[in-house]
Specification:
The complex is a heterodimer of chains A (321) and B (222). With 321 residues, chain A is α/β, with parallel strands linked by helices. Chain A is built from nine helices and 16 strands. Chain B is globular, with a radius of gyration of 19 Å. Classes of the chains: A alpha/beta (321), B mainly alpha (222). Chains A and B meet through helix 2 of A and helix 1 and helix 3 of B.
Amino acid sequence: MSDLVRSDRRPQTAAARVSGLTKRFPGFQLGPLDLVLEPGTVLALVGPNGAGKTTTLNCMAGLMVPDAGGSEVFGAPVDPARPAYRRDVGYVGEESGFFQRWSAGRNLAYLADLLPGWSRDRAQRLADRLALPLGKPVKDLSRGNRTKLELVAALAHAPRLLLLDEPTAGLDPVVRSEVLDVLWETTEDGDHAVLYSTHVLSDVSRLADELAFLSDGRLLLRSGREELGERWRRVSFRLPQEEVELHGVVDHRRVRAEHQVITRDAAATLEQLGELGAEAVEASRMSMDEIAVQILKQGHGVSNAKHDVRKEAHHVAHVTS
Amino acid sequence: MWRTLRAELSYSRPWLLGGLGVALGVVLLVSAIFVAIGDDGPPREAAAGIRAMFLIMAPLIVGFMVQTYRSEERRARLFLAGPITPRQIAVAMVLLPVVLAAVGLLAAGLDIALESLLRGQLSLESLQLAGYVGGLMLMMAMMGLLAQEATAAHRQRRRRAAVAGWGSFVLAVPLLAAVAAAAFVFQGPFSWPSLHLGNLVVAAAAGAATVALYTGRTDFTR
């Protein structure tokens, strides 16, 4: 876990910068959270329900006022009373606030008058591309079409930062694919920064460059997607010892001399196994789902023990059968 | 702020037209009943009062509906996508019932003017009654908004704001009761003006408190 929460990075023109963001609810606290999102980055915010993903995005969009800390969008403070930052933000959330009895088209026309930089052409192109029925009242739109409408509304003013709160949740595979296509095309130019909360890990492999894992309101880990895939491995081997200490191992099962481990530092684990003389060593890649489950499980345990996962990065896992 | 207000008025137009249509039907019915009863029935001010009440009530009921839909449909999320501040949203929210009350008062005024033309005599008492009904209903609409914001403050654990909101609400009730009682006990040239003033002062205070409480919100997602 070398790529940890990079709160010390301070580029000149961060697309979004979250500093010490804290929001308290009865029985739950988000943060203090530090996060920097650079232009051209697609960061997936991964975590179970109730981890604080939506609260994070709501605070970054200015829909919630944090109890402490705050955030900036391209240098402009996120403050509901100073709405300059909103020019650069496109937000897709669970609920969008549309006039339900108005048609989708009329809602978009209202936004066109409201938002500087709105392009009617772009909105029309996106609506056509997504086959959005513009004449239908919003209240009669299906879940998929509502998401499409939100996406058109979020993209038509060409924001440089997209905040997407589980945009594909509950969508059928066809609509999901269409939505992901549009997002992928939007981010392709490398100018957009995207913070994308999800627990559908298959979306992550398509869009995200980096993943940030959130659990119990705390950021456990931030890492590049490719790097995660390279470092995490399931390794099976034969070794007669009953007890063995292995670098990077987070899960260890043993039946007699047959061992199976999950490691977050494949290179170190394999090197050590070589030194120990392990036989029949086989390492296999893990899916992003499996990796996420392991990270969140570890994070949860660490969180309960009041430890910081960052300090655990080079911890030597002590496992017994 | 005006774009917000215009959008909400535009959104409420079908209900407003429907409501005014129903009120107009009631006005015609009440007029027909009073004509049928003739001079032996209640005084013409009573008929004018009933008609005014319906004409003013119709748009303000629409105002309550818009308020409900605004909250249910999480409208703030849409407004906060654009360059609108919470204070502007709050002012538009408070101005909506004022505009709708003005529509109702205008309709009631037209009704009284028409009746005066037909009878050849202006009834000041009818005008005062219509004004009172309008002021009372506007004040109730404002108190509704204040109660909503005091509840939101409580939910968001802004305790001082919640106490201030509910405190204003509780204080307004005895104040209005005292004004109304004084106006009826000490009948005279100041009775109607003091009743109007009482309603308007409480409505304005509730509106100002609503704007202050909304601006201090820490959560605009609900």
